[in-house]
Amino acid sequence: MKRTRGFLRVAGLAAAVATTVSAGLVSASTAVAAPQAPGTVVRDVDLPAPARLAAASGQRQLTYWTEGATGEPALSTGSVYVPPGQAPAGGWPIVSFAHGTAGVGDDCAPSFVGDTPLTQTFLTTLLNAGYAVVATDYVGLGTDGVHAYLHGRSEGAAVIDMVRAATSVDPDLSRRWMAVGHSQGGHATMFAAHAATRYAPELDFRGASATGTPANLELALLIGGPGFPNVGLNGLTAFAAFIIDGLRIARPDLPIDDYLTPAGAELVRESETTCYLPLVSRASEVGVGVGEMLSRPLAEPRIHDALNDYLAVPTSGYDRPLFLGHGLPDQTVPFPLGAKLAADLLVGGQDVTARAYPGEHRVSFTQATPDVLAFVRAHL
Known about the structure:
InterPro entries: AB_hydrolase_fold (IPR029058), Lipase_secreted (IPR005152), TAT_signal (IPR006311). The chain is α/β, with parallel strands linked by helices.
């Protein structure tokens, strides 16, 4: 019987940290001469100080092979956190955490600069509960190339291959794992959950929890075009710039620039090297909203079809349990988008538990933590 039940990243860097990121990029991009199998580790170093967690007994940064936005092999970086104490029989079970929106620039990569205090608290909760945590940066954040923001398949692959990478270098880690993510990470988690048992059958995938998931954006973008009004959603222009830039990466055959005004093209270019909050500030400073970014409607078939392939969260084909959470007053990813996802999954016969919370986007992440932890405990 199927069932249902009733974060954004703050980024900003000092020059010293930016230098560390640059050094990491050089090492990651020059360490290997040719692509290797997904999950293959090419660099294993101590985790940079800003990304460390006091609760972890061991923590390292891995650079590993995974899949890019056009399906080609690509490198990603990520963090590995091991709980204190002796590993249980069979090794530490793993939570592969997918982070929320940080931005697209390399200076935004969590394994170099750390994640938000909310996320750090959540990861600490997982460690204290006896789970190892692995956390991908996604392709292009901390490695060569540009991160294709919200490109579902590549983000999902990075979440899965992070588990492969971590288990290949730490014998105290189990192959038993779950995927957990919030916001952008909720989107990545859903794609990881959809592919996990086919993509990495040698691992023991148990299920996924996704909160604040930006689902159904391909439908929302149907109304995007010149004159689109300010609808009061937090960071909407920055998100649109990140998505459009990502679509350029995933679909170089499409004339994406033809759909942008000069101001929109400039903001999209800036998005490639800018973290989320600075880009929000920049869009406000120059007075550019979604309506000022676009010169033509995104509903034109070739663009909408491409966005659908790029963004659309699958609503059937999952073979492990799912937990969804969403804040009712969410002004970053509106609740109706998440509610439609839950309803579509149920209609598709999926094993999904869905809950609503009274807080907005970031607050709902914290409010959902007890339910997420209970779900992980029940299945992992």
